[in-house]
Structure formats: C-alpha cells, structure tokens
Design goal:
The structure is a single chain. This protein is 52% helix and 9% strand.
Length: 823
C-alpha cells in the first residue's frame, strides 16, 4: 500500500509538472521580452525542445494522469466526470497532432489564452479528486487548544529557517564583520522570520475562529487554510514572477489567481485522495499540510534528525538557484517552499496539548508584540548606515530574509514616478508604435575617401575586469592585451542597457530606442545598416534572434554561424567561419564588415555546461568557469588578429572589441544579469583599433563612452558627420578637433535595464550611478572609481535631481520616436 501511494504521488507530480510547464511555455510566448529571449533566442534550449515534442509526450502525460484516476471510473460520484475528462483530453490530443499549438505560438494574446486553456485539465483533475474523496473524510473535533500547537510551530519554524539560512550564508561567503554587525544581522533575520510566521499564525487563528462558528468546523478550517495558501501563492506569483518580467494588469491577475488555485487545489486533492481511514479523524490544518509533510522519525527524541534533510535541501536549492537566478526570483520561490515544508514538519512533530486552557488572546498578544518589536528594531537598525549596509549585504545571500524584507517594504506614498517608469518600459505589442525614419547624418551618398574594413566583436556578458588591459591582476588574456597595446582603450565605457534585449539594438541604432522588443519594421531606425548599404560594404553577420528582427536582409549580406542557434555561438567557431568566408571574397567585393556576438561566457551557457573550469586551471581572485572560457576565446581572438595581419587586412581595418553588458559573478550574492543596474553589469570593455589614417585624430579615452557610440563614430570616420544631437543618441568618439569632443561631452547619461522598469543616471562623468527600481520600489546609489565601487546612500537632493533627469530623458525619447504612452 505504501508503495502504491508513493507511485501515485510521483505520477501526479509528473502530471502537474507537464501541465504547468505547458501553460508557462505558452505564457512566455505572450510576454514580449520572454518571447524574444526564450522562444526566439533559445535561452533555455530544453524548453524549446519541450515545445517541439509537446504533442507527442502529451499522450504519455495523459496515460499517467488516467492511471491516477482509475478508481474514479468506478465511483458513482466521479464516473461521468472522469469519462468526460478522458474524452475531452483524447480529442485535445488528436487535435494537437494536426495543430501542434506549442510549436507554433505567436507573440500575441492568443498565447495567453492558450496558457489559460492549458490549466483546464489541472482544474478538472481537482474537481474529480474532491468529488470522489472529500465526502468520505472523517473530520476530527474542533480543538481550541490547537492554537497553542500552531503558535509553537510558528515560532519554531521561524527559528529553524533563520538558522538554516544563516548557515547557508556562512557557507556561501565569509565576511569580516564587527560583533555589533553580527548581532544586528542575527536579530534582524530572526525578527523578520518571527514576524512573518506570527502573521501566519494570526491568519490561521482567524480562519479557525471563523470555522468554529460553522456546523463542520474542521472541514471549513481545511477549506479556509487552502484559500489562505492560494492567496499567498497568488501574491508570490504576482510580485516575484510577473513584476520582474513586466507582466502587469488584469491578465496577470487572472493568470496568477487561476494558477494559484489550480496548483493549491491539485495539492489539496492529493491530500484528500491519500487520506486513510485507519489513521483516524483528521483536523483541517493537518489535512491541508499532509501532502507536503516530510517523513518524520517515529521516536520523538529523533525528531531533530528528521529536519537535517530539510536543511540540506534548503542549502542545495539556495546554492544551485543563486547562480541562475533572475533577481533572486528562484531563490525566493525555493525559500517559500522550504517555509511550507518546515512548518508542516514541525507541526507534525508538535504534540497536541489537550486539556490546556484557551490562550487565544495571550497568543495574539505575543504576536502583536513581535510585530511591534520588529518595527522598533527595524527603525533603530535603519538609522545606522553601517549596520544597514551589513544587513543589505546579508540579504544578498539569505533569500528567505530577503523575501520577507522585500515583502515588508511598503510602497512609497507617492508612487507616481514608479508608475511613470512602468508605463514607459516593455511597451507591449498591443500598444501601436510606428517606426521613425532616423537619418543619423542626413541623406547618405557613397563617400570617395578611404573605406576601412570593419570588424565588431561584441562578446555577450564580458566584464572589463577580466581583461589584463583593464586589470593588472589578469594574466589569462595575452591575445586581447596585445591587441589593446595597438588600440584605443576606452577606460570609462558603459552600456546603455543592462541586458542584451535592448543593448544589442542600441549598437545598430547608435543610441537608445523606445523600451519595446521591438518596434517593427525596425529598419528605418537602423543607422548602422543604412551606412553599410550606402558605402557598399559586404557584410558578414552572425544573425542571432535579435538581429533577425532588426536587420533587413540584403543581397550583400553573408550569414555567419548559419547552422548554429544563437545561444550556441562561440567566438572561436564564429571567427573561423568568418576567416573562411573572407578567404572566398571576390576581387570586386566591397570592403568587409563583420559583426558577431558570441555567447561563450553567458551565465546560462556556463550553467548549461555544469559550471566547469574547461582547462582545469586555477584562477585565484576570479570566477574560474568564467575566466577559463575567457582564456579560451582570448586565444582565438589573438589568432584572428594575426590572420588579419598575415592577409594584409589589419592596417586597413577598424576592429572593435566590446560587450553588450557585463555580469554579476557573486558580488553581494548577485549572479548574472536580469534587470539590475549595478556597476559590474553596466561597465564594459571598449577597445578600438584604428588604421593609421585615423590615428592622428582627437580621442579622449578617459571620457564616458558607450558601445552605442560605435555607430556614430563609424559615420564620422566615413565622412558622414552625425547631425542627430539628442542626448540619448551616441556621439563620435574619434574626431578631427578637440573642440568637437568637448561640445558633445556631458556629465550625466540615462541608462536602463532591458527587461523591466529599472532606469538609472550615470553621473559625475561616470563616477556615480543612481538607480531607480520600479520593480522593488527601491533606489540605489553607487560611487564608482576606476578599480572598485561602493554602495552609497542617495540623498534626497540626489533623488530629486535623478528622478527629474530620468523623466526628462524618457520624455525626450518618446518625443523623438513620436510615442504617447497609454495612461
């Protein structure tokens, strides 16, 4: 019997997983940037494979689902409901063979409705489970003394979770903190957990009080507990998942509510189906927790040992999700799962205190005291900047504490600025936006002067501090360092966008665009492509998913990496392909232009390759999996430069080595690049080799530069001085006179995240960064020097000035592109 129950649980989990994955796959097609990055960009290859074979594995999932419903074919209450479910799913499976929906999803509202339709089988299974099993539950009598059991479970869970994630913090990093900081951090995390589980106790107490007024209190308690869980699930989905991916509005509310109800209902259905009469009557909360209760040792003195696997699970999830996280989203979600499992386990371990006097008001009093203590302590700690900095650093490694802290951070009283950012970010496809014809330097006619070959190599997620030319501690980039000695090293280079989605187009546009993925047709705004066409360049381009949208195909283009998907681009193979195609150039071909954006060190690629150190080397002070891949493509880059020299191309070529953005590699617990604007993400390398014809021109290598300045610079060097003077457009970095450099230099620049409503002002000539985060309702400030940076405190004056500049910058972009954001 126990084996059958285990097999049922595993089978049902597989069915739930298949249905949820189907629904989420369709939902990702509806959201513009996830459609571009996941569906088109291949960010998660396994998910794309799932979509392709969905219609085939559907039958396996259906067979498993029907196997879990076998008893229901015989029960009078559920026979017809189960037969109708079977018939409907068979018809759906047949239709999928002729119309494989998941393989043909589009970026429009139809994908949203398919995501909702995919949840229907889950809701149907919930209905079958409850119709066939809920009436047979033997409910325990209502016991008011269980309030003390729940209260004890709540504070034990708070202490246990605090200790577990505190140990995880110690494992993940070591910090040299003062005794005061250590005590403050320990107090902050314990109070936060006590508060959140105190609130949970209060909610359960209210639910039990309401249930006690009904004829079937335990049954009503069970229903109310599941509704509380569904409400928490809805809040987590809306705040942790949807807000970071800019999915807002009524459709987001509808999906989040449906998903929460379906998932909680399915888990609850498993509980009522697995209930056994021989175990005796059961209370409402006990039944609600039964599907997620971990095995508990039979002897009470062994109970603590039962929690060890749970602690190890928390640590494993925290460490493994941190390196692939999207602004702590996965870490927070797994932390919430650990909360539930811990509460269920400790509730099971805690004995019922029969015959104990009703202490309901005493317990609520202590809960209120915990809440008051949290507020007082939080205010006291926040008044000390050094302690606040320590707590902020700790939150980067403790996802459980961060989840609570972010949830308790009240939105600002005046959130109009954040609403303004949201309205102008990730503009949906449903909002009409027409392209504006941008002539960066007026009408273009072919020049008669020198036309250099142009090679732009944009390495995705490349950090400047992993290049010897920027960081003397680096010893593994001899090829790039040799190239740097013959090139201009822009020491103060940044990205306009903290993510590929808009950073790559900004190179081709030569500046910032509307925050949309993407305005189509894109060609009227593609300044770089217009220049290449006017000057008759023969283009060799690695056409990733983004370039297939923004670059218009022409007869004078040759595709690099034509048999490779975008996330599989590697610099070595791309340059090898380029060299092969350059060898095939005909005498009459025009000058060569090449663009490639390899993914060697993209965090998802490193994770997909099991975070291995590919050469077995040691890289003290660096992240070895990342550094080893930098060493690999450094050799290939050096080989390509040598190829250009041997073939007489180098002295007549502009070679640009840059990045679309940087990456977080563990700084304060951050990994990768989501929508964070932090120094290690916004600072990039920018190295430019110039033919001797340009080497006498004026260059300020210490001034702020962006990779979006590359296109205006190319215009200038080819005899087309840019006439667009908008602040959000790039500027030529190499000019004939020093006065021209001075005329275009500014002290503040607008930047943005690519995927969410997070905007920033790079100020003081690149020495400060003010960030305004409309996802977390939080502002950040960084002091930046050449070698390091530090988090600072944004003054009220800085905030007011920064908000004004962001508003002005966004308004200028909207006016330039003739866009009126919807109210």
């Amino acid at each position: 019997m126990r084996m059958l129950r285990l097999l049922f649980t595993l089978a049902r989990v597989c069915v739930i997983g298949f249905i949820l994955l189907s629904s989420l796959f369709a939902l990702l097609a509806y959201i513009p940037f996830t459609y571009q990055q996941v569906h088109k960009g291949g960010l998660l290859p396994w998910l794309i494979t799932f979509g392709k074979i969905h219609s085939k594995i559907y039958w396996i999932a259906l067979a498993v689902a029907l196997a879990t419903l076998v008893p229901d074919f015989r029960r009078p209450r559920t026979r017809w409901l189960t037969l109708a479910f079977t018939a409907a799913q068979i018809v759906a499976g047949i239709l999928l063979q002729f119309f494989p929906v998941m393989a043909t999803l589009r970026n429009d509202v139809s994908s949203f409705w398919w995501s909702m339709a995919a949840l229907v089988p889950l809701l149907w299974i919930v209905a079958i489970d409850f119709a066939g099993n809920f009436p047979r539950i033997e409910w325990d009598d209502y016991h008011r003394e269980d309030d003390r059991r729940i209260f004890r479970t709540a504070w034990e869970t708070a202490v246990f979770v605090s200790l577990v994630y505190g140990c995880i913090f110690c494992y993940r990093t070591s910090v040299d903190w003062s005794r005061t900081d250590r005590i403050s951090v320990a107090l902050a995390t314990l109070l936060c957990h006590m508060l959140i589980f105190g609130v949970l106790f209060a909610a359960l107490n209210v639910a039990r009080s309401i249930a006690s007024l009904t004829p079937r209190p335990s049954a009503v308690e069970y229903v109310l507990c599941n509704f509380i869980t569904a409400g928490i699930g809805y809040s987590l989905v809306r705040s942790l998942v949807f807000r970071p991916i800019s999915f807002e509005g009524s459709l987001a509310d509808t999906y989040a509510a449906t998903l929460a109800l379906a998932l909680v209902g399915c888990i609850a259905g498993m509980g009522v189906r697995l209930w056994r009469p021989d175990r005796g009557p059961i209370g409402g909360l006990a039944l609600a927790l039964s599907p997620v209760t971990i095995p508990i040792a039979r002897r009470r003195w062994l109970y603590p040992l039962s929690l060890i696997p749970l602690g190890l699970l928390a640590g494993t999830l925290a460490v493994n999700t941190a390196i692939m996280d999207w602004n702590y989203m996965f870490q927070k979600l797994t932390a919430s799962v650990i909360w539930v499992l811990s509460f269920a386990a400790l509730f099971t371990m805690t004995p019922r205190l029969r015959g104990v006097a009703d202490k309901r008001f005493t317990l609520l009093f202590w809960t209120a005291m915990i809440m008051s203590g949290y507020r007082l302590t939080a205010s006291s700690l926040a008044a000390h900047p050094k302690t606040s900095t320590a707590i902020e650093k700790y939150a980067g490694y403790d996802a459980s504490f961060r989840l609570i802290r972010d949830a308790l951070s009240a939105p600002p009283k005046d959130d109009s600025f954040y609403k303004f950012l949201t309205q102008n970010t990730n503009i949906p496809r449903s909002v009409p936006t027409a392209p504006v014809n941008v002539d960066l330097a007026g009408p273009l006619t072919p020049g008669t002067g020198f036309k250099p070959h142009i090679f732009i190599i944009t390495i995705d997620s490349f950090r400047r501090d992993y290049i010897g030319a920027y960081n003397s501690a680096v010893t593994f980039t001899p090829g790039i360092d040799s190239f740097a000695q013959e090139s201009v090293i822009f020491r103060n280079a940044y990205t306009r966008y903290g993510g590929t989605g808009l950073a790559e187009p900004s190179i081709w546009v030569g500046g910032m665009t509307l925050h949309k993925q993407y305005v189509t047709p894109f060609y009227p705004m593609n300044a770089l492509e217009k220049l290449l066409e006017a000057e008759k360049y023969r283009s060799y381009i690695s056409m990733d998913a983004i370039l297939r949208v923004i670059v218009q195909p022409t007869e004078n283009q040759v595709e690099l990496d034509s048999t490779t998907s975008g996330m599989d681009y590697r610099l070595c193979s791309s340059l090898s392909d380029l060299q092969s195609k350059l060898d095939q150039r005909a005498p009459g071909d025009g000058p060569a232009f090449a663009y490639t954006q390899p993914q060697d060190i993209h965090i998802s690629v490193i994770n997909r390759e099991k975070t291995t150190v590919i050469d077995g080397g040691a890289y003290p002070g660096f992240y070895p999996p990342y550094a080893s891949r930098v060493r690999r493509f450094d050799g290939c880059f050096g080989g390509f430069i040598q190829y250009l020299k041997v073939h007489g191309l180098y002295d007549n070529s502009i070679v640009v080595l840059t990045a679309d953005h940087g990456d977080s590699l563990g700084e304060d617990g951050r990994w990768g690049h989501a929508y964070t604007l932090v120094p290690e993400v916004v600072r990039i390398p920018l190295l430019v080799h110039l033919p001797k014809q340009y080497q006498a021109m004026h260059i300020d290598a210490k001034a702020v530069a962006f990779q979006s300045d590359v296109t205006p610079t190319l215009y200038y060097l080819l005899g087309h001085k840019p006439t667009v003077k908008a602040d959000f457009y790039g500027r030529p970095l190499i000019v004939e006179t020093a006065a021209e450099l001075q005329a275009t230099r500014k002290s503040e620049y607008l930047i943005a995240a690519s995927y969410a409503a997070v905007w920033g002002i790079l100020g003081d000539g690149g020495r400060s960064l003010a960030v305004f985060d409309a996802v977390n309702y939080k502002d950040s400030y960084f002091d930046i020097s050449d070698a390091r940076y530090s988090a600072g405190t944004m003054s009220a004056q800085q905030r007011e000035k920064g908000e004004e500049m962001v508003r002005k910058g966004i308004a200028e972009i909207n006016a330039f592109y003739k866009f009126q954001p919807p109210k």
